[in-house]
Amino acid sequence: MRFRFEVLVSLKDGLLDPQGKAVQGALPTLGWSNVSEVRVGKHIALTVDADDEAAATAQVQEMATRFLSNPVIEDFQVLEVEPAS
Amino acid sequence: MTEWKPRIGVVTFPGSLDDRDALRAATLMGGEPQTLWHGDADLGGVDAVILPGGFSYGDYLRAGAIARFSPVMESVAAFARAGGPVLGICNGFQVLCEAGLLPGALLPNVGLRFVCRQVECEVVNAATPFTRACAVGERLSIPVKHITGRYHPPAGLDPAQVVLRYAPGHNPNGSEQDIAGVVNPAGNVFGLMPHPEHASDPLSGSTDGLKVFASMREHVETAALVA
Question: What pTM, to 2 d.p., does this model score?
Answer without folding.
Answer: 0.94
